[in-house]
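pasting for the record
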Amino acid sequence: MGLADKAAMKFLLLVISLLFPVLAHAAQSNKAVTARDTVSLVSTIQNGALRLGLLFQLAPGWHIYWSDPGDAGAAPGVTLAPPAKAGPLAFPAPTWLVSAGPTGSYVYLHQVLLPFSLTTSAPAGTPITAAVNWLVCADVCVPERATFTLAPDDGAAQAPLFAAADAAMPRPSPFGATISPYGTLALDGAGLTPDIVKTAHFFPLSPNAMVNAAPEPLSFNAAGLTLRLKLAPGPVPNLPGVIELTDQSGQTQALSITPRLVAAGAPATSLLVWLGLALLGGLILNLMPCVFPVLAMKAVSVARLSQADHPRVRREAGAYTLGVLAAMLALGGLLLALRAAGQDFGWGFQFQSPIFVALMSWLVFAIGLNFLGVFEIEAGAGLGQSLAAQGGLAGSFFTGLLAVVVATPCTAPFMGGAIAAALAAPWWLGLSVFLALGVGLALPFLLLAFAPQLARALPRPGVWMLVLKQFLAFPMFATAIWLLWVMALQTGPDGTLIVAGGALALGFAAWLWRFSRTKAKLGAAIVVVLTLGSLSLIHGSTKAQHLSLPHAAPYSSARLQSLRAANQPVFVDMTAAWCVTCLVNDRVALDTSLVQSAFAAAHVHVLVGDWTNRDAAITAYLAAHGRDGVPLYVYYPAGHGAGQILPQILTPGIVIAALGQNGKH
């Protein structure tokens, strides 16, 4: 039976209940009335059988909960006075609600009837007494309870309510359903095509089986449709539930399913696709401005090697790759662990810590001083052979670590989906995606080391190398200045002064280190220790407001909903001061006169979500769009159409085309 047939059946049931009142007599109990809701017990007699139901009429903004409430809440409960006993409540498909945290809940809004059966030895017509408890929530939650008394033969007919509730109840699914170890729910069968199915959402009956606040991206294939769920950590659970399908006309049907767990090898093709995209994203990272200063360090080290010393080139490339992979595993593992613990961290989360930004600023500043020859650390003195600038296996390994740490503010194409897939997958699949990112980042040096024809193209060592090394100090200083700007947005002038003063102290320590006397080196070490101690004075109390676009307003979910309710077009820009890709997109595309004129002509409201510091509302918005990091650009046309996600790397043409295409609908 198709969606149109289901809708026709619902209408037919309602008409029958209205046209044949001899089959249905009904009653309604006393009502419990508050500013939040009106609740009563209702009954109907259909074909001689008595049915009961809890009728909830909710004030705007308030809700009650489904049988599985999700991350918070509790389902209603009912107890009948003896000798009557209540059967289980029947629940129609709920509404998915994501709130701050983020938390995902399954709720009912406006009005809902929850029918249930009863058994009793009392004579027909005996009054029924029910004790009912429920939780009603908006910004706050209020537990409520009431006692209802109902005489089944009294009151106006309630049969249409029961008929509508029956029509909304989940039906056994005619489609085959499977679930993969990494959360892909597949529904197979005729009629599951994009021209028929507009939206789909899965509601689990098992508590804690999945991340309830995570979005469920819908896609189609030759067999049917798929939803990508974010499963809870641990073994793949038994996952019975309800899937609600909405057709292009807005009609819905709810289907009960118990997906079959597919074999582990079944999703290999999809996994290979994500691994391939991660590999490509890591490779493109080498072209991003975040990584350039670190690659410059490695380039100086490689250029120092003689053309004949190919084994040494291979060893250093291997050490660099190990450093990259170790950092990717550590960063990815920490991020997966934090997300599993319920924390709202995303890609690049370490740059949301002012202390981390300060340390990185000082580190790249010290590397720049090393490149200029202000100080040298002898071989064997540690610190990765003068922080990787001098080469060697330890230096190459440290360079790989540093490359990953500073690469996160840059987002290459294909990385957004790959990282979202990694965080949604079981831990072993997620770490595989992060390793693929690392292999892509290290691939250019691996090719250089293991392709003899490329190694022979290395220039011969000479005086030019010293000039190049000194020149490359200036990209390091530029990076330190950028990080100082990020610190200014995060902490205000006090934190900026501490970091700038720390850089001055480190420069003085580097100058002292030049002298061979033990006292000078001891003094340098003391200055470094005191500088690091100043980190305790840094507090990220200032709310970052990175609103670089003209006429932009800060993002809030309330503001977005208000504009959409008023049928206004909206462009949402999720960004951060430490996101270099975001800054480039601002300068190259969004802040150009062409795009600004297009925004003005179309009366587009620009909302900027600043993720420089942690922000739960922005994290929830990113998650709702299948992303775990910035940038994210979404354009909502006038009216109530769905938002369009734009590419992570923008041009003026891409933005203007999005405005024009949506404007045609």
